[in-house]
Write a structure and sequence with these properties.
single chain, mainly alpha, 8 helices
Length: 173
């Protein structure tokens, strides 16, 4: 029998769930969520790992939450948004330094596809709602829980995001 990499994890139980089962269930979804927000596969993996590490470090508290997966999603979203803000800030600083503000820097992301470029250019809340709905397949109720907003706000952001993507990509809304 193969040894688990999580043998030393304290077996804190909330409705029968251990950190290991939360990690195995949620990690791939957190990578997809972070990728949907950042458009960067490598960053997405690191951000998901950081979110899971934070959950592990705080497992005594988080295991008592009704929805530890929602907490993990919120942390992943926050980390992803921080990554984007940091990257934009760094690119602007580099542009000022190298080009003295004359030429804009092009996006050189290797894995960027037109759709994800458009998703990443949506307003923050629309981007989060779109990714949670279509990448993580959450309901409007679940999205509202994760983001801490009302279901009607989720529906509004979802509709506006869809309309904006449809107009940019030339498809039906």
């Amino acid at each position: 029998m193969a040894e688990s990499a999580f043998e030393d994890i304290p077996q804190v139980v909330k409705a029968g769930e251990h950190y290991e089962s939360l990690f195995h269930r949620e990690y791939p979804r957190m990578v997809a969520l972070a990728y949907g927000i950042t458009g960067n596969r490598w960053a997405a993996e690191e951000l998901a790992q950081e979110a899971c590490l934070r959950a592990y470090r705080s497992w005594d508290s988080i295991s008592g939450y009704d929805k530890p997966g929602a907490w993990l999603r919120r942390v992943t979203i926050n980390l992803s948004n921080s990554f984007i803000r940091r990257r934009v800030s760094e690119l602007r600083a580099l542009e000022r330094y190298v080009f003295n503000g004359v030429q804009p820097l092009a996006d050189h992301s290797l894995e960027a596809k037109e759709f994800w470029e458009q998703v990443s250019s949506l307003p923050r809340r629309q981007r989060e709602v779109i990714v949670l709905r279509y990448v993580d397949d959450l309901t409007t109720t679940e999205i509202a829980d994760v983001l801490g907003i009302s279901e009607s706000s989720v529906r509004t952001h979802l509709q506006r995001g869809r309309e904006m993507l449809a107009s940019r990509l030339g498809g039906p809304s």
